[in-house]
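Morning. Coffee machine broken again, so started the prediction first thing and wrote up yesterday's gels while waiting. Chain of 267 residues, entered below exactly as on the submission form.
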Amino acid sequence: MASESDQHAISSRKALKVAVSALCLEVGFQTAEESVIETLTEMLESFLMELGRSTQAFAELAGRTEGIMTDVIMALIEMGQNIHALPGHAKRPNKTVFLPPAHSAPHPNIKMLQTGDRREHPSHIPDYLPPFPDPHTYIKTSTKKAPMSEYQMIREKAASQKRDVERALTRFIAKTGETQSLFRDDTTTYPLIAVKPMPLPYLNALLPKDQDLDSQDQPETMAVKKRKRAPEQSEAIGENPQGVDADSIDNPYLRPMKIAKYKKRLK
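Came back before lunch.
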């Protein structure tokens, strides 16, 4: 699908081709080949483009953004054209007048999926600039669901997750271990986890295996470490579990006990 600029270029090219054909008829030509008309149209288009470029350059040189008639005359003089012959050419008697091109119906725009309302241009942005895109392309939108905060829904979800986990674990054990069936002929329908017979089932209650033995041995190991503490370390802390300075206690009965040092006598 051609854009708006391409359609404008095509219509301008057709108008130049009609003008070249009219000039050929004024000179006296009855017929012309298509390639000749295309060549003359290309030359006229190049001439007009160079004239417009020079006019814009003279306008910018004078500090203007749009060209005026003076800029066009200066551009024609620079290109070496005779500007005095222009009034006589405009008032020639056998001038061909052709109707302007009719307005063609605009092509319908392709309907595209649009999300939200598009933002209009502010006052400082011209209207000929393309419009803003859809808001979802430059505005942050959350794509995740809001967390559930209702108590009933949370309980239902937790119960369903627990039920699914139990069901999956039961199926896994049934597939990997021994199973029993409700029907003798069909062993795949309604499999049940086989119960392992035990001669003395009460031993599991009397001999528990899930106790933490390390936590039970911790007080004994701490006592052994305390007995093996070096004398210098005992003196440094003063055998005070709370870390209180012994000299700061006025009551002598509340002061911690200090172990005296024994020095070996030399024989």
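Strands lie at 179-181, 191-193. Going to sketch it on the whiteboard this afternoon.
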